[in-house]
Fold this protein.
Amino acid sequence: VVSNILIVDDSMTMRQMVNFTLASAGHTVTEAGNADEAMLNAQQQRFDLIISDVNMPGRSGIELVAELRKLADYKFVPIILLTTEAQPEMKSKGRAAGATGWIVKPFDPEALLGVLRKVLPA
C-alpha cells in the first residue's frame, strides 16, 4: 500500500536519507524543514504518516505533535519521532504530546520500514 508521508527535519541530509528509504519502498514523500512548514503541509494535504525530528529551530517536534493532534484530520494519524534524543523523559514528553513511536538516529532503514509496517494500515 502506497502511503503519503511527511518528513520533518531541519537537516536536509537526514530528510534525504529518510526520503530515499521511504521512496525506495514505494511511498510518496513530502519534506518540511521545520514545524511551521510541516503544519502548512498538513493543512494543505492529508498524510498517512508523519516522521519528525525533535530538536529543530523554532518549535520542537514534540510541540509539532501536540499541534497536529489538535487537528481533526490528525487525531489518529501515526506520528513517529526520529531523533538523537534517547532519554526516557524525552520519550515520555513525546508520548504525552501524542507521538505514536520513537526512533533514535542514526536510523537503520530496515528498522524504519519495520516501524512503518507496524503503524500503517496493511
About this structure: Residues 86 and 104 are 6 Å apart (CA to CA). The first strand starts at residue 4 and ends at 8. The longest helix spans residues 12-24.
